[in-house]
Amino acid sequence: MPLQNRVTPRSEILALPDRGLFMGNRGILHDAAKTLARARWKHQHWIICTLSYKGWHRDVMQAGAYTELFFLDEATALAAGHRPCALCRRNDYGAFQDTLRHALRRAERLSAQALDHMLHAARIDGTTREQRRFEASLDDLPDGAMLVFRDEADNDRQDVWLVAGESLLRWHSSGYDRRLDRPKGITALVLTPRPTILALQQGYQPIVHPSAQKLLEATFAV
Predict the structure, then answer these.
(1) Which residues on adjacent β-strands are paired with residue 149?
(2) For residues 148 and 135, is the Cβ–Cβ distance under 8 A?
(3) Domain residues for 191?
(4) Distance CA 166, CA 185 (A)
């Protein structure tokens, strides 16, 4: 059985066999049996890391060590409330900080602590401890944002979709599996936290699973 360490855009942590392009952590969430308890974070530093760094190697879910979490791609991790790691993804961390700084019209970058505090307030409802979501016009959402959309053509399914230009791409744990034209003039429930939306609007470009580009190319080649 796979370990419970795969994160979805809805910020759920599930036991799925897919591992994806990135890993990250929210602190120590597992016990000696490599089982998650009720906690879904132990600190506010929710980061997105590379799968390998400087040849370092570690067993997953070691006793007393942080719980390795895995994401399909960076857009998924951003939607779940994470941000680039300042160590193994320093250039991406800097780019994320700079685009957010421009969006907030700040002269300097936020400290890592201030950034994480801002993100935590935007991603988690302090009362319910559940993912915080908001409604926004599909016309205004930047590429890389993720949302919940009711697909009338597919029995009104409430799936998660990625914004990709004039398209919406349906998220699946193993990759994106369907494309729709982006509807005009309607609102959707946005999963990606507001500060991250600001960074995306200013040009931060998250790394997206290759299935997204293949889906777009296959569709437009018809």
Answers:
(1) 159
(2) no
(3) 134-220
(4) 13
Is residue 220's pLDDT more than 80? no
Task: Write down the pLDDT at residue 219.
Answer: 66
If you average pLDDT over residues 164-189, what whole number do you get?
Answer: 94
Query: Considering 123, 143, 174, which residue would you say is the last residue of a domain?
Result: 123
- Considering its fold, how many domains does the chain have in total? 2
The pLDDT of residue 221 is above 60: no
Q: Among residues 88, 123, 158, which one ends one of the domains?
A: 123
In 3-state terms, what secondary structure has residue 51? coil
List the one residue out of 174, 162, 165, 157 whose CA is nearest residue 211. Answer: 174
Q: Which residue has the tokens 């429930």?
A: 189
Q: What is the pTM of this model?
A: 0.94
How far is it, in rounded angstroms, from Cα 214 to Cα 74?
Answer: 17
Rounded mean pLDDT of 119-146? 95
Report how far apart, in Å, the C-alpha atoms of 52 and of each of 1, 34, 49, 170 are. 23, 21, 8, 28
Given a contact cutoff of 8 angstroms between Cβ atoms, the answer to whether 211 and 179 are in contact is no
pLDDT for residue 45 is more than 90: yes
